Amino acid sequence: MGEIDWVINFKCKLKNMNDLKRLQDLEFKKIGYWEKHTLYEDRIEFIIDENYNSCSDLLYVYEADEKICYIGKTDVSIKSRLSNYKAGKKGGSAGSTNQFVHEKILNLLKKNSRVNIYVLIKKLDFKFHGIEISLASGIEMNLIKEFEINGLWNSRGTKNQNKSKITNSTSKISNNINNCFKFKLKEYYYNSGIISFGKKYDKFLSNKGGIPVKLIIQDDSNIIYPTFTLSGENRKINGKTELIEWFQKNFNINDEVNIEIISETEFKIYK
Q1: Which 3-state string (H, E, C) describes the chain?
Q2: What is the pLDDT of residues 216-268, one digit of tens each?
Q3: pTM of the entire structure?
Q4: Hey, what domains does the chain have and what are their CATH numbers?
């Protein structure tokens, strides 16, 4: 099958993707599984085929009871990426996502569910103006969107579910210079759809990571529900594809955008 035919075939299968068989049809391969630690109740271990230890630039999926639970992409080796979930530490090099997924896996294992690990390792001989195209990077978000209706861990549920979880318990912060600031779109933030907050704004922000928040983009007609994360002591909003598109459509690298902290779970970003 040619490379273009493979992509067309992938898109056709994606439309009907709703179970484990579809994942296998898309050429994902099972390479291992998670299990409870033999000595410690709060620890987990992964067992994978040693032939895949050093593989990178791939998509991986966790599946339990024929349900897709989590979809991820790794640029480092799959063994290194799984080690972060195994540790599941608060702060440090293992962020809130690692801790969140660690706990989800552990909960399933305690219910005696089998949590399997699948990967998609496929190289496409595609280039755009001489730049190599990564299949894993190209299809990750579409894959997540197709499966998230079933409650993927990636998004802590669908957008509507995230929206319903955002409460009004946190009082609004009165508009003043202290909670409004200009954010410089350095290359990393520009290309990743991320907003990072300085330490002086900690008093306005949550101490809990992995929670959905409301982000108003420019005006009330454009609202998304990204995730507020903690990595060590760094507080960030990860807006992913939607924020990347807005950044790249309206700004250049190193331009400044205005950020307003309305409450712990509500923010506004505008030109």
Answers
A1: CCHHHHHHHHHHHHHCCCCHHHHHHCCCEEEEEEEECCCCCCCEEEEECHHHCCCCCEEEEEEECCEEEEEEEECCCHHHHHHHHHHCCCCCCCCHHHHHHHHHHHHHHHCCCCEEEEEECCCCCCEECCEECCHHHHHHHHHHHHHHHHCCCCCCCCHHHHHHHCCCCCCCCCCCHHHEEEEECCHHHHHHCEEEECHHHHHHCCCCCCEECEEEECCCCCEECCEEEEECCEEEEECHHHHHHHHHHHCCCCCEEEEEEEECCEEEEEC
A2: 998 766 888 889 998 777 899 998 888 998 999 999 999 999 999 999 999 99
A3: 0.55
A4: 3-154 (3.40.1440.40), 163-270 (2.40.330.10)
